[in-house]
Design brief:
Subcellular location: Cell membrane
Largest sheet: none
Distance between the termini: 29 Å
Number of domains: 2
Protein name: Carbohydrate ABC transporter permease
InterPro entries: BP-dep_ABC_trans_perm (IPR050901), MetI-like (IPR000515), MetI-like_sf (IPR035906)
Helix content: over 70%
Shape: globular
Number of strands: 0
Keywords: Cell membrane, Membrane, Sugar transport, Transmembrane, Transmembrane helix, Transport
Pfam families: BPD_transp_1
Length: 280
């Protein structure tokens, strides 16, 4: 029975489609990297050919003249700070919601889940007006606050599942040893739920790294833009002088490289963490 299911035509077709998509994605990434090593004239002459010589100057131009170097520092700062803050705020809230299974806590959990369905475009104008009124437009603090707020619904919902799976006997043992509730949470519960915390951090880091809408609206200084915005600005700057395609593809590689490395290193942990956390 099991063998027939494994060899069913539907399963084979599904696996074939999945591997086809994976192969297409890998081929696209390889093409972007190879194109970043070519000059504009060669790209237009032979779009899918291999580079005859490595134009490493494209990366130097992208990092310096293209503004991707300063943008990379901004992206790292925003992604790291907002991810740490979001997890630090969400963890205690998720823990209390997981442990206090009452009608009120269940309703609050559902409110966080409903927050996942609110599109960011709806919040753009109200947030801009609010941030402008307190002078937080074009500041790292303002954009960090927005990223943290947008991350809270999903992060709390994800971590609630992780904390629900932590055995209650661990807290009882800590209480017997004289540990307070806060100390038991910090010294016992957080280390046990470390996988969930890392997963939540990585997911928010990826989202902040790739976020474009709020970064374009709130960061108006050239020295504060993030990498996706730097790519948009580079294309706009080059459209009147003739786009330097090699430098543009080099900038795309600068944006993609950390994410590709992160998924190659921690991809299985991210998928496992999402499955365990949301499944509970």
């Amino acid at each position: 029975m099991t063998i027939s299911k494994k060899r069913s035509p539907l399963r084979v077709a599904g696996l074939a489609i999945v591997w086809l998509i994976v192969a297409a994605d890998i081929a696209l990434l390889i093409w972007i990297f190879l194109t970043s090593l070519r000059d504009t004239k060669d790209i237009f002459a032979r779009p899918f050919a291999l580079p005859t010589s490595a134009e490493l100057g494209n990366y130097a131009n992208a990092w310096g003249e293209g503004g991707f170097g300063a943008a990379a520092l901004s992206s790292v700062l925003l992604a790291v700070v907002s991810s740490i803050a979001a997890v630090a705020i969400s963890a205690p809230a998720a823990y209390m919601l997981a442990r206090r299974r009452t009608r009120t806590s269940n309703s609050i959990t559902m409110l966080f889940a409903m927050g996942l369905g609110v599109p960011g475009q709806v919040l753009l104008v109200p947030l801009f007006v609010a941030m402008a009124s307190v002078g937080l437009v074009d500041t790292y603090t303002g954009l960090n606050l927005i990223y943290i707020g947008l991350a809270l619904p999903f992060t709390v919902y994800l971590l609630t599942g992780f904390f629900a799976g932590v055995p209650l006997v661990l807290e009882e043992a800590a209480a017997i040893d004289g540990a307070s509730g806060v100390r038991a949470f910090v010294r016992v519960i957080l280390p046990v739920a470390r996988g969930g915390l890392i997963t939540a951090f990585l997911l928010h880091f990826i989202g902040s790294w790739n976020e474009t809408l709020f970064a374009i609206a709130f960061m108006q200084s050239d020295d504060k833009v993030t990498l996706p915005v730097a790519l948009v600005n580079f294309v706009k700057m080059q459209q009147f002088n003739g786009l330097d395609w090699g430098t543009m593809f080099a900038g795309m590689c600068i944006i993609l490289a950390p994410m590709v490395a992160l998924f190659a290193w921690m991809g299985s942990r991210i998928i496992q963490g999402m499955t365990v956390g949301i499944g509970k």
